[in-house]
Every structure is written in structure tokens, then in C-alpha cells.
């Protein structure tokens, strides 16, 4: 992750905030990606069109980043498919347990001063820090 710059983080965060704000203003819905994806599995009338469009926009955004000169070659996933599937299922379980995902709580919830979202985000970040520490220093993996 040597390409990190404060400017890229600022731009990325600003774009995420802009997209989240536009979704809230135009539809009254928060940008919780797990809820958006989960809603596609059990669609309600009037929600069918915007959910796939939002998720497709995430995929297209990666393509646009690459087309504008962003370096996608440096992104490597060391885990195999079984670990990725198990990890994805665990993340899905965690989002159900926590009442939403990092985008729903961390972006939309905190910006609305939701105490529940602030608490959830503190727990997400603490868990991430502990996981990285254990993986790197206790289990001896990762760089």
C-alpha cells in the first residue's frame, strides 16, 4: 500500500460522502451496502431498480479508476477462494449481528449522529486493529 496519499484519501472520502448524500437526498435511503445488496435478495416494490444501479456503480467506479490511470495491478489477494468465501460469509453474519455494515454505520450513521452507529463503528475499528495485531504479531503473518 505504498500509493497512499492524504489527497487520494480525501478525494475518495469526499466521493463516498457525496454519493451517500445524493442517495439520501434523492431517495431518503442510507448508503449501507450490505442492506442494499441484501435488499436485492428480498426485493420490495419500488426498490428493484436503484439497488442494482448502486451496486453496478461501485463496479464501474473501479473500472473508471483503472481507466484514469489508477494502479489496479498492485492489488493482490493472498487468500484462496475457500478463505474468501468463508470470510465473506463471516462478514455477512457480522453485518446482520451488528445491524449494518461499515458504510451504513460509518458513513451514513455517523453523519446523522446516530449513537448506535458511532458505537458500532468504534467496535468495527477496534476489532480491525486487534485482528491486524494478532495476524501480524501473534500468528506471524502479513506484512
Characterization of this structure:
This protein is mainly α. The protein has a domain at 77-142. It has six helices and no strands. The chain has helices at residues 6-27, 33-41, 50-67, 81-97, 102-111, 115-138. Helix 2 (33-41) packs across helix 3 (50-67). The longest helix is centred in the last third of the chain and has 24 residues, at 115-138. It starts with 5 loop residues before the first helix and ends in a 5-residue tail after the last helix.
Describe the SSE topology.
Layout: H1 6-27, H2 33-41, H3 50-67, H4 81-97, H5 102-111, H6 115-138
Helix pairs in contact: 2-3, 5-6
Q: What would the keywords be for this entry?
A:
143 residues, mainly alpha, 6 helices, 70% helix
Amino acid at each position: 500500500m505504498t500509493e497512499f496519499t492524504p489527497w487520494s484519501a480525501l478525494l475518495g472520502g469526499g466521493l463516498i460522502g457525496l454519493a451517500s448524500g445524493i442517495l439520501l437526498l434523492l431517495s431518503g435511503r442510507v448508503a449501507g451496502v450490505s442492506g442494499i445488496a441484501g435488499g436485492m435478495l428480498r426485493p420490495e416494490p419500488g426498490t428493484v431498480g436503484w439497488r442494482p444501479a448502486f451496486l453496478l456503480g461501485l463496479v464501474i467506479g473501479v473500472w473508471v479508476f483503472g481507466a484514469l490511470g489508477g494502479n489496479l495491478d498492485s492489488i493482490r489477494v493472498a487468500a484462496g477462494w475457500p478463505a474468501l468465501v468463508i470470510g465473506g460469509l463471516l462478514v455477512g453474519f457480522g453485518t446482520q449481528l451488528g445491524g449494518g455494515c461499515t458504510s451504513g454505520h460509518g458513513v451514513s450513521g455517523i453523519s446523522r449522529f446516530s449513537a448506535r452507529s458511532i458505537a458500532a463503528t468504534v467496535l468495527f475499528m477496534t476489532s480491525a486493529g486487534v485482528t491486524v495485531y494478532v495476524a501480524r504479531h501473534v500468528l506471524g503473518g502479513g506484512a
